[in-house]
Amino acid sequence: MIRYCLGLVACLMATACVTPITVEQQTPALDFGLAAPSTTSPVSTSLDAAPAEVAATDAPKILVAVTDARLRTLEGKPENMIGYLRVYGIPQNWTVKQLGQKDLPNDATASDLLESRISLGLINAGLQAAAADVENIEDAGEIEALLEAEGGDRLLFLKLTDWHVDVNTSWVGRFQFNHDTDLAVLDAAGVLVEKNFAEREAIQAEGDKSWMNMVLEAFRDQMQEMLSDEEVQAALVIGRVEESAPEPVAEIVQDEAIEVEPQEESLPEEEFESTGT
Predict the structure, then answer these.
(1) Would you tell me how many other CB atoms lie within 10 Å of the CB of residue 41?
(2) Which of 121, 129, 214 has its CA nearest to residue 165?
(3) What is the rounded (10 degree) CA torsion for 12, 14, 19, 21?
(4) Which helix (H) or strand (E) segment is 235 a member of?
(5) Burial class (CB in 10 A: 0-12, 13-18, 19+), 202
(6) CB atoms within 10 A of CB 142
(7) pLDDT per residue as tens, the chain (277 positions)
């Protein structure tokens, strides 16, 4: 009973009388040098909604998959958990539902939240994007089949080994955000790029912001950092670049013929003597 009451207090302290920042404010701001979406209507971030129209119809379509491999969830914590809210030092589970995200279903997981925001960020940057259900990328055949079935050009796959905040509501100082993410971009032929982004951050709290909104901003900033990586962006937008074979040496010599200045023709020795000189 006491633990339940503490959990209720923690939830109220984090979310009561607080309006969450908008979905757009939670979305990573990305720049791929592409046109923005042509539609002026609001873009739906619902997991059940169809991908929004984009300005360039030939823009790559990126399938976005986030899988939860966090130790805490593997040990039995719910997949909708994003971290701990502490009341007088006692930790209470903090979930996606308690973040007040009306565009997501009540049972949305941490992976669902990230998939939704990443997909919208890619769409806003001029790409096509849609969430996909992928648990691992070990079977190349399955990835190829998925891309073909969904009309996707590439798969953006994130494996969360850690994604956890720890907030002490009794102390307005710093809060902990630990994250460890394996990111890969693949096409039908295989992996284009693989990277790991990991850090244990102590983020300074701001007195005029709620814990909920500061956490949502921290999530956004980390998504933006990963997707702003030059190699990741090149893999998403350009894809696989085939290396051209070196030009044969013989052709190079033929194309770059050396011009030789003409020289005066010398007379044969006998003709030279017959001139009497």
Answers:
(1) 8
(2) 214
(3) -160
(4) helix 230-237
(5) exposed
(6) 13
(7) 444 444 444 444 545 457 899 999 999 999 998 866 654 444 444 444 434 333 455 899 999 999 999 999 999 999 999 999 998 889 999 999 999 999 999 999 999 999 999 999 999 999 999 999 999 999 999 999 999 999 999 999 999 999 999 999 887 789 999 999 999 999 999 999 999 999 999 999 988 899 999 999 999 999 999 999 999 999 999 998 776 555 555 544 455 444 555 555 554 545 444 444 4
Which of 164, 208, 3 is CA-nearest to residue 89?
Answer: 3
Architecture of the domain defined by 2-237: 3-Layer(aba) Sandwich (3.40)
Instruction: DSSP for 85-148, please give it.
Output: EEETTEEEEEESGGGT-TTS-TT--HHHHHHHHHHHHHHHTT-EEEE---S-S--HHHHHHHHH
Q: How far is residue 161's CA from residue 128's CA, in Å, rounded to a whole number?
A: 27
The count of other CB atoms within 10 Å of the CB of residue 210 is 19
From residue 233, how far is each of 41, 197, 198, 223 by CA, in Å?
26, 15, 18, 13
Q: Which two tokens stand for residue 98?
A: 């308690």
Q: CA torsion, points 144, 145, 147, 150, in degrees to nearest 10?
A: 180
Decide the pairing of beta strands 154-168 and 81-87.
parallel
Cβ atoms of 72 and 165 within 8 Å: the answer is no
Q: Which whole-number Å values give the CA distances from 10 to 76, 87, 139, in the listed order?
A: 22, 6, 43
What six digits make up the tokens of 210?
């709620």
